[in-house]
């Protein structure tokens, strides 16, 4: 993602990365369908750990979309959810759209970081220094991006915990 930011900037980089994300999450989703029974047994073996994954497959389209989005923003390992999504009965459309929306903050920061690295590299190559205004803009922008990501991650974890508690009450 950094390389996409360095080479293509925001728009082309975003399109390229999101196309890669689409393929990268779709393949395990459909491979998971082949191993449905085995994944289902694993989820049953670890009910507490799998509760949030099972929660994603419940409810209607919007509930699935919202839960997938929250899972993508949270620190839950992506690869685990990619394979388990089929076994939890998450439909493909909310899975893919929720993945796109949930990964946007991460992709944006990675692209921004790549663009920032490129600007520093160009300044070094041209043997010129960045202006004070550019340095301040880059540092503040980077800190704001990291701060927003941390804030969103904390809020997402709290929301997922609340959803898990609501599920256990039912």
From TrEMBL:
Looking at the UniProt entry, the stretches that span the membrane are: 95-115, 135-154
- Read off the InterPro entries from this record: VTT_dom (IPR032816)
Q: Does the keyword Signal apply?
A: no
Alphabetized, the UniProt keywords read:
Membrane, Transmembrane, Transmembrane helix
Q: Which Pfam families match?
A: VTT_dom
Cite the VTT domain residue spans from the record: 3-115
Name listed for the protein in its UniProt record: VTT domain-containing protein
Q: What is the lineage of its organism?
A: Eukaryota, Viridiplantae, Streptophyta, Embryophyta, Tracheophyta
